[in-house]
Amino acid sequence: MIPLPGVYRSARLLALPLLLLLPAPACADARGGPSRPDPSRPADRPAFNADRAWAYLTDQVAFGPRYAGAPGHARQLRWMTDFFASVHADSVRVQPFTHVAGDGKTLRMSNVFARFQADNPERILLVAHWDTRVFADRASDARGRRLPVPGANDGASGVALIMEIAQGLNAAPPPVGVDVLLTDGEDYGPGEGDMYLGSRWFADHLPAGYRPRYALVLDMVADPDARFEVEERSRRAAPEAVARVWDLAREMGYGDAFPTTSAGEIDDDHVPLIRAGIPAVEIIDLDFGPGNAYWHSPDDLPRNASRETLRTVGEVVAELIYRGG
Ligand SMILES: [Zn+2]
Predict the structure, then answer these.
(1) On the CB side of 160, how many CA atoms lie within 13 Å of its CA?
(2) Distance, CA 252 to ligand 1 centroid (Å)?
(3) How many Å lie between the centroid of ligand 1 and the Cα of residue 36?
(4) pLDDT value at position 14?
(5) pLDDT at 23 > cutoff 80
(6) Band of the pLDDT at 3, cuts 50, 70, 90?
(7) Ligand 1: distance of its center to the CA of 300 in Å?
(8) CB atoms inside a 10 Å sphere around CB 16
(9) Looking at the DSSP assignment, which residues form a beta bridge with residue 93?
(10) Across all residues in the chain, what is the average pLDDT?
(11) Is the peptide bond prior to 190 cis by the omega test (within 30 degrees of 0)?
């Protein structure tokens, strides 16, 4: 993820009362089908097990760095596909693709795309990147800048959260179909020409007729000092979904973690999806550690990440899904 220079810092200062004026989503299917559950009522759903989510996070970090070509990359790919088969997704697809990076290297990468209730026309798409950055280019010293990013927060956290929710999707089906896209090459870099590669590939190869109601992109969702402001491209492309997420977080008592202030514009996996016509919402906490010192650094470790933040975001996303999206 990259905050756009200039926009980010200045836009953070603006508090936008943007959400309350938006129309509430309709309860009944527009084609006269059966009513969805009342989105204003708490859902009867599996609890979000933050301990298990945390274990998924630490498992990923234990694989080692997870960029194309690293041994941990192959290990994690196998682990993810085994996982989605074990929780009985309707389908699990590995989407292999190659990318020639700016340095001339040909990279072999893979998205993982898993579907639950594949026949349900009402769908939402959950997205997280599973790769980690090759070099910690924001480390405070030269030695650190040659090290890979462990990616506890930037990589593993979003995947862990989605896996914990996916655990229950077959056993306790929510009112909407759910697709999971775990992208590769989001963070390869160092420049943006070699980033967001898996989401770009997916946007260029959408399944025929694929029209999820919206996508939620989860990135850096385990910062101990949780603060998920509203990202501006998301607000423009998916205002109703943004309102749903932030209103629900406030209703659930997580308003401090989900302030309605602006995060400015951020480049991330949601942008290619939006360009492909999928309304997409980026849920991200840009400030990781004191002065953002842990972002793209060797300190992006489980000891600097938070099980409680994973729980907060996981509860909001699970509640959203089980209320019908
Ligand atoms: Zn990153």
Answers:
(1) 31
(2) 29
(3) 37
(4) 37
(5) no
(6) confident
(7) 10
(8) 13
(9) 113
(10) 91
(11) yes
| DSSP letter, residue 15 | B
What number of H helices and E strands is found in the chain?
10, 10
The pLDDT of 23-38, averaged and rounded, is 44
Span from the CA of 166 to the centroid of ligand 1 (angstroms): 23
Q: What is the mean pLDDT of residues 181-193?
A: 96
d(CA 50, ligand 1 centre) in Å = 23
Residue 17: is it exposed, middle or buried by C-beta count within 10 angstroms (0-12/13-18/19+)? exposed
DSSP 3-state assignment of 172? coil
The pLDDT value recorded for residue 19 is 41
Residue count of the chain = 325
Q: How far is the CA of 302 from the centre of ligand 1 (A)?
A: 15
Domains of the chain: 2-19+43-322 (3.40.630.10)
- For ligand 1, the distance from its centroid to the CA atom of residue 190, given in whole angstroms, is 10
**Closest to 257 in 3D by CA, of 215, 300, 311:** 311
Asked whether residue 28 carries a pLDDT value surpassing 70, the answer given is: no
Q: In the prediction, which pLDDT does 201 show?
A: 98
pLDDT, tens digit, 9 for 90 and up, residues 46-95: 999 999 999 999 999 999 999 999 999 999 999 999 999 999 999 999 99
| Distance set, CA 2 to CA 51, 197, 221, 253, 269 (Å) | 30, 14, 15, 29, 10
Distance 67 CA to ligand 1 centre (A): 12
C-alpha of residue 250 to centroid of ligand 1, in Å: 27
pLDDT digits (tens, 9 = 90+) for 88-122: 999 999 999 999 999 999 999 999 999 999 999 99
Lowest mean pLDDT among 18-27, 163-172, 268-277: 18-27
Ligand 1 mean position, distance from CA 265 (Å): 15
Question: What is d(CA 116, CA 84) in angstroms, rounded to the nearest whole number?
Answer: 10
Cα(211) to ligand 1 centroid in Å equals 27
Ligand 1 midpoint to CA 187 (Å): 5
* Å from CA of 296 to ligand 1 middle: 6
Integer distance in angstroms from the first to the last C-alpha of the chain?
25
